[in-house]
Amino acid sequence: MSSTTEEDRVASIISNRLHVEESEFEDDTPITGDVLDAESLDIVEIAEAIDENLDVYISDEELEEMETVGDLKSFVKSVEEN
């Protein structure tokens, strides 16, 4: 079993897709705020990467409700637990 948690992997995906160091954002950081500055295409690409790397599908409706990094992490964690 890997020591990397799903939450760590979500943070890594966000960091890689948006070219932002993981140390620059936290769970309460808004996805579209000044720090991450994600546009809608970026958010879709993050969701696709989560699906591809973690096998967790996020529908468009669910994605629209997510506002922070923590929202994405919580969603992935809840799916993984079920």
TrEMBL record:
<dbReference type="InterPro" id="IPR036736">
    <property type="entry name" value="ACP-like_sf"/>
</dbReference>
<dbReference type="InterPro" id="IPR009081">
    <property type="entry name" value="PP-bd_ACP"/>
</dbReference>
<protein>
    <recommendedName>
        <fullName>Carrier domain-containing protein</fullName>
    </recommendedName>
</protein>
<feature type="domain" description="Carrier">
    <location>
        <begin position="1"/>
        <end position="80"/>
    </location>
</feature>
<dbReference type="Pfam" id="PF00550">
    <property type="entry name" value="PP-binding"/>
</dbReference>
